[in-house]
Design brief:
heterodimer, A: alpha+beta, 23 helices, 54% helix, 19% strand, B: alpha/beta, 7 helices
Chain lengths: 787, 253
């Protein structure tokens, strides 16, 4: 090893504290990059493999009732490689000891062999035996949540008839990665189950002998999906086709995709922030080092080393820190990715995991961090080149403050000398001060945005479950029933208020945009479940108009006053053209509201309702649930508090969990920036400060000179950070919002106050740490060394 | 004439009186850096009295312990063993706060590398001290003493080395210190500027009555002192009391 390299290692050791601090910031950036891209590729790959191995269909075609032989027509559509019909239906599971009936989806499996499409992954027990009509397989997560095992019997109501079925096995399936009851948005393992039964048995239960009510298609790579969907719709049109849709519209897959896309988006937007901060810090520290080594640089040059050799010596120092940080980031990123992926696995019920790292993320992480560091390094190198051996050997001239202004005579009476020193330093190097200020402001902005996002999540839950939905229980019927059911519900003792609703599945179309969803038909003056505007006031439904959730209006790119096409996928399947009357503030899902009467008239089904919102006396809860369980028309009962808890859980375990990680990192970064700013300021002025101590200034007075600067920068950074944070919170809120829920960017004084407190706390702690060092500093040596 | 003679006699008789109330008294002062085999003995038992109002030069090669002694009696460092008295106060017993107070009220420092605040003008550098001192002179006056009244509004970066050192001296004397410590005050200066600086120190000693302690390894400086303390290997080799003091002008550089 040559002597310059030995010097390099010793220099590194000497500045190890700051080198580690900067390396850590780089590492965090690279860690997030590696971890998140690792998660994205792993989830993507696991999902792809799972879909492929268990042959998830590319196209789903729901239909009322189509004869089995039409499957061959579907299989003949150009581009379709295989087709299969199956029977699906909704069921209610009655668990002993539970007052509420639990919703389930029943899905048929072929009597013999495995299905061509949408196979299952058996986790416990055995597959179904042909000829035994009472055997079922149960979704594993549901069984686990309710303590059910193979061998147990289950009381299930299918198509209004109650029967006892025996669980022979537990299974998972790629189409049920994310399970929700029909019409519900939030996953609840214990509240919604999937039952697999043999085709013959299930067809008997739902009157589907010789027929299917869902066709599954797989398509070749070169198939044109829209053409396939159109062809399938045409073939099943006369059988009550409800509209073919592709895999990307399949509920489970859509939520998984949302989640993965969210991760992908933040993996490209968050790490660069960290790397930029690190590059800035690195620049400051290395330029300080070069400044303090002027003599050595001069000496080395005087020996005959070239500018390039000396320059590359310092450049290596920069690269060593950056590469060290990047390497640590990769290692920790792999570890963090491994830890996180298990959480995701559990959340999504993947039966296996393909942990795959994206080698590109290592390369990107390395290149970006080394590149960012080099950018700062080049500025330093310019200074190294500019030093001539002779000038480098002379002590540096005192920094020139002659252009900082004298602030006029007036100020002289106001400011004492220490204050003037603070002020002059701030004005002498405005670039560096602005840099430090922006660094702290960035920390403040991150904190504001992250604390605001926390409040945003809370508001989503709060607004959805207290402002918009003021009911206690939602009852869903098997099918649209007469509105006399309202009176029946009202007669149940303990029910205080009943508000009917008619929900029908539809496809919204506007121009080139379309969205599969549902329309909620509401009573003219809804009280329990309302559409509210941005001021949270009830939007009154006007006859002949539709109110869309903001998220839905965005998807459809439609504004109030424009005409929306609504294709109803139920009953007579009318196509309605209706003006958008307003936009509603909803944070959960993307609903649309219309007056029930208008909807029913279009359907030619007057006075029909599909469900009802109930306000009940909580003392009589159990009794009410038991009564509902015995009503044959009731398909499902959902309790608001359960739904609320489920949403909260989902936000805390899914992609929303990242908010905790990011908030923690925002805190670390904020502290890192402030601490480094304080350290650098101290390092640059140790000698001045020691001189002050020597001429009789107390520790407190000297601390004022140093920390006054930090305080001023922090005070300026607070409003600037708030402003940046305000805009950043919109970006982050959008990043966290998904198809399922929208996270609002909230301007809440509390989050700004809390962020400001965090920044001030970081400043105080950093100041205290630096003051601690300053108090212990050796006055004599500070005077002896000439920088 | 007689009066004059008697006055002179009084001054002469003042000498032993000064010795009875010295500015500094040290007893068995030792300073050791490090421990065990790596220990460096910077001072090995120094007994010394420095009379008030004198100009004293501490002379010795580098590493002889003269700066260490200056730092200890200046309240910047603490002795390992032994005692230091400033007048009748024991410095070795003082807390950090008390030492700060001591430096603030009684001590002026002049360093080899000036140690001015680069962000303050000459005038402001002096004001830095007058703002906290108990009985300061006017900053203008202090700058006048070093002949820099017309450079008062210049920043250190706009001053030559000698000018910077004179500002440092003005800053040190502005508080009207009891003692003025100068550590190699001319070490970074050429001979002409060096003489100017020494002249200023001499004037301050004579006109303000401050005890001036100069640490140097430039032997020639010793000719202008009342008393020269020779240092070697952490101990006093000899003390010479000059019968006649040279003017800085006449010092051989």
């Amino acid at each position: 090893m040559n002597s310059l390299n030995r010097k390099l290692l010793r220099d590194l050791w000497r500045i190890k504290g700051q080198a580690v601090a900067i390396g850590a910031v780089i590492a965090v950036g690279v860690l997030m990059l590696v971890m998140m891209t690792g998660l994205v590729t792993s989830l993507d790959e696991t999902r792809r493999t799972y879909y492929e191995r268990y042959r998830l269909a590319d196209v789903f075609v729901p239909v009322n009732r189509a004869p089995e032989h039409r499957i061959t027509d579907l299989a003949a559509i150009p581009g379709v490689s295989s087709a299969e019909g199956r029977v699906v239906g909704s069921a209610l599971i009655d668990l002993p000891g539970r007052d509420l009936p639990l919703q389930a989806q029943a899905v048929s499996l072929p009597d013999f062999g495995t299905p061509r499409l949408n196979d299952i992954y058996l986790t416990d027990g055995r597959r179904l035996e042909s000829g035994n009509a009472n055997e079922i397989l149960l979704l594993k997560s549901f069984a686990a949540a309710n303590g059910l095992r193979p061998g147990d019997s289950l009381s299930v109501t299918m198509n209004g008839k109650r029967r006892s079925l025996r669980i022979v096995g537990l299974a998972q399936a790629p189409e049920f990665l994310y399970t929700t009851a029909p019409g519900e948005l939030i996953t609840d393992d214990a509240g919604f189950g999937v039952i697999w039964m043999s085709r013959t048995a299930l067809a008997a239960a739902y009157d589907m002998e010789g027929a299917f009510n869902e066709a599954l298609l797989s398509v070749g790579l070169d198939a044109r999906l829209p053409a396939v969907l159109d062809a399938a719709d045409r073939i099943l049109e006369s059988y009550g086709g409800l509209g073919a849709y592709g895999r990307e519209d399949q509920t489970s897959n859509r939520f998984v995709s949302e989640e993965i896309d969210g991760l992908r988006a933040s993996s490209t937007s968050v790490p660069p922030i960290f790397l930029a901060v690190a590059a800035f810090l690195l620049y400051i520290v290395i330029s300080r080092l070069v400044e303090s080594e002027r003599e050595q640089i001069g000496l080395i040059k005087a020996f005959g080393y070239t500018d390039f050799e000396v320059g590359s010596h310092y450049f290596k120092l920069i690269i060593a820190i950056a590469a060290g940080g990047a390497a640590a980031g990769c290692l920790f990123g792999i570890a963090a990715g491994r830890a996180m992926i298990h959480l995701y696995l559990e959340y999504y019920k993947f039966p296996f995991l393909i942990f795959q790292l994206d080698p590109a993320s290592f390369v990107t992480g390395f290149l970006v961090s080394v590149g960012a560091a080099s950018a700062g390094g080049l500025l330093v190198l310019r200074r190294v080149f500019a030093l001539t051996p002779a000038s480098a050997m002379r002590p540096p001239a005192p920094p020139d403050y002659s252009r900082t202004g004298r602030f006029g005579q007036a100020l002289n009476f106001v400011l004492d000398q220490p204050s003037r020193m603070v002020l002059r330093r701030l004005t002498r190097q405005p670039g560096r001060m602005i840099g430090a200020m922006i660094g702290i402001a960035a920390g403040m902005a991150l904190s504001v945005a992250m604390i605001g996002i926390m409040a945003g999540f809370d508001q989503t839950v709060e607004q959805t479950f207290t402002v918009i939905d003021r009911s206690d229980v939602t009852v869903t019927f098997n099918e649209a029933v007469s509105n006399k059911a309202v009176f029946e519900l009202q007669r149940i003792p303990g029910v205080i208020e009943v508000e009917p609703i008619r929900i029908v599945p539809v496809i919204f179309r506007h121009g080139l945009q379309s969205h599969r969803g549902a329309v909620n038909g509401l009573v003219p003056l809804p009280r329990l479940n309302r559409a509210v505007d941005s001021e949270l006031a009830t939007i009154h439904l006007r006859k002949g108009g539709i109110i869309l959730a903001q998220a839905l209006a965005d998807i459809l790119a439609i504004y109030p006053g424009e005409l929306l096409t609504v294709e109803v996928r139920e009953g007579r399947r009318p196509i309605i053209s209706i003006p958008v009357a307003g936009v509603a503030e909803t944070l959960l899902g993307s609903p649309a509201f219309i007056e029930m009467e208008v909807l029913n008239r279009a359907l030619h089904e007057p006075n029909r309702i599909s469900g009802a919102y109930l306000r009940i006396d909580s003392m009589m809860e159990g009794k009410i649930y038991r009564t509902l369980k015995d009503m044959p028309t009731v398909a499902g009962v959902s309790v608001k508090n359960n739904a609320r808890a489920a949403l909260q859980k989902q936000m805390d375990t899914g992609a929303g969990m990242m908010r905790f990680v990011m908030a923690a990192i925002a805190g670390v970064i904020t502290f890192g920036i402030i601490y480094n700013a304080a350290r650098i300021a101290y390092a640059e002025r140790a000698r001045d400060l020691a001189s002050l101590r020597v001429i009789g200034f107390t520790k407190g007075e000297v601390a004022f000179v140093l920390l006054g600067e930090l305080v001023v920068i922090t005070i300026v950074a607070l409003p600037v950070g708030s402003l940046i944070g305000y805009y950043l919170s919109f970006a982050i809120a959008a990043g966290f919002s998904s198809d399922l829920y929208q996270i609002p960017a909230i301007f809440s004084p509390e989050s700004y106050g809390a962020a400001a407190l965090a920044v001030i706390a970081a400043t105080i702690i950093s100041g205290w740490l630096v003051k601690h060092d300053m108090d212990r500093a050796d006055l004599v040596s500070a005077l002896k060394t000439r920088e | 004439m007689k009066m004059d003679v008697s006055t002179k006699e009084i001054i002469v008789q003042d000498q032993p009186l000064k010795k009875s109330s010295p500015a500094f008294t040290t007893k068995a002062l030792t300073k050791t850096y490090g421990e065990g085999a790596a220990a460096v003995h910077a001072l090995r038992g120094v007994d010394l009295e420095i009379p008030s109002g004198e100009m004293v030069v501490l002379l010795g090669p580098s590493g002889s312990g003269k700066s260490t002694l200056l730092n200890i009696i200046g309240g910047l460092d603490r002795a390992s063993e032994g005692t230091v008295f400033f007048q009748d106060q024991e410095l070795s017993d003082m807390t950090d706060e008390q030492l700060t107070r001591y430096r603030r009220d009684h001590v002026g420092f002049v360093f080899q590398f000036y140690n001015l605040m680069p962000s303050l003008t000459a005038h402001e550098n002096v004001e830095l001290v007058t703002e906290i001192a108990s009985d300061p002179m006017d900053p203008e006056e202090a700058l006048g003493l070093v002949g820099l009244r017309d450079r008062a509004d210049h920043f250190p970066s706009q001053l030559s080395g000698g000018e910077q050192q004179r500002v440092a001296i003005a800053r040190a004397v502005a508080k009207q210190p009891t003692v003025l410590f100068c550590d190699e005050p001319t070490g970074a200066l050429d001979s002409i500027t060096g003489r100017t600086v020494l002249q200023v120190l001499k004037d301050i000693n004579e006109n303000l009555g401050a005890t001036v302690l100069i640490v140097t390894h430039a032997a020639a400086t010793a000719d202008m002192a009342d008393r020269v303390i020779h240092f070697a290997d952490g101990a006093i080799r000899e003390i010479v009391v000059n019968k006649t003091k040279l003017d800085p002008e006449d010092i051989k550089w």
